Amino acid sequence: MAELAGGVTCLWLGMVLGISFLEAPLKFRAPGVTVPLGLGIGRIVFRALNRAEVVLAVLVAAGVALSDVRWPAYPAGAVAAVVLAVQLAVVRPPLNRRSDRVLAGEDVPRSRAHVVYVVLEAVKVLALVALGGLLLTGG
User: Fold this and answer.
1) Which residues does 8 contact at the CB level (< 8 Å), separation at least 6?
2) What local confidence, expressed as pLDDT, does residue 139 receive?
3) Tens digit of pLDDT for each residue in 48-63?
4) Where on the phi/psi map is residue 88: left (φ > 0), alpha (ψ -120 to 50), or beta?
């Protein structure tokens, strides 16, 4: 069961890396992509990513709970889950309000919440790397 949870963890990690650290910044460099268009696409993509992350987090938690791996997989998994919860409950709402304003045509200053979200993504990536490694090696 630990190996399956490790595989799901790696899937989760790959999704976060691919979307948060590749797709999100690169879409604004594509010809013809305006800030409102990029934000609109980003909202849809991140809504889907976050829903998938919740499902994957539940699957990983179940896999960890049903496996013989306990320590330090529990704290690594807990960090990833708590970071995701903070992103969804605390950081995303102000980001959504800001993007609503930008999409409505307002001139809105940059948001510190975006920097917080990126830092939390980096923490989540580190937790997922640790968790995946622990689960796949039986450590």
Assistant:
1) 56, 59, 60, 63
2) 65
3) 999 999 999 999 999 9
4) alpha
